[in-house]
Amino acid sequence: MGRLTPLVTSLKTLNITYQTPQETLLGTPETLPTSEPGTPQIGYTVASDGLPSFDLPPYQKKFVAVLIGAGKFVTAGTVYYRMKKNGASVATGSNSVSANYYYTWNCYFYDVAVGDVLELALWSNQTDSNWDYKAFQIQVSRLIPFNKPRLLMPCNFAALGTQPALTLGNPTVTYSSLNPYHCDLPLPSITAANLYGVLYPNLYGMFRIGFGDSSYPNTATVLTSSTYRPRYYRNWVPTQIIVRGLKTEGQL
Amino acid sequence: MNLTLDTGIKKDLTGAEIATLDNKLRTRIPQLVGWSYSPLTGELTLDFGEVEDEALKQKIESWVAKGDSKRKLRFELMEMVKQWVD
Asked: What are the domain boundaries of chain A?
């Protein structure tokens, strides 16, 4: 039977900074075509200066791109979408929109990297529907601060925020809580700072963000409103995590 | 209320195929608000919106809860998808 030899790191503070979302409200709405456009109306390229930044480089991280497209239907109809990553289809679908309602597609691309081209094509079965709003932001999920030691004692989600924070158009928000994990098992979701005595991040890291990882990875969901555009989801995300690593003989 | 089914088909749909599938789904399930299909996973997610109709709610919940009913629904959808793929 082996003897455990703890090796404890100093208490380390990891600060995460999220970049301001790219956001555009067209002065003149563009009419949606009645068949799929050859070139998607909305497109962004993942750039290094658009990624969340870390003051301590983490061992593992997965980037999630949030892409939002919105517009309005005059006549009730159906809006179709296709998400593309580097020219390949990621997800397709449709949604009903009532007359004189705004629609907002909330699209999530899981596991993106610098240079990826992410696009959203929109079309409609009505001739008097349009789009006029787009936004883009990169978030981070499945973070692991160190490989060895992996065991964290403690793991303090010291500060949380919500992202993306959109301002143009007439926005309204629904929030999605943060999902911490221990040994790939989900802990109760949180919307405020929380201290865990022990946490072992594995495949799912210390946490998964709500929209884009826990829900709707590489797909989209639509929200409609008679008043608000964009009507979108904001994730609770950590902005500061304070941890100490503890290494033991064996694997932890 | 959403219902996700694994179609087992990972196919990149054309715009025309999306229109055909949309028409077939909405004809067969008039209460459908929206749907999404992933060619990466083959998953088809049916979105029934905020279901207030108690009968529909119970019907969807029974599809989700009862394996046999879910398989039956999957079979019916697969027949539609097959028609469209063929």
From this structure: 7-247
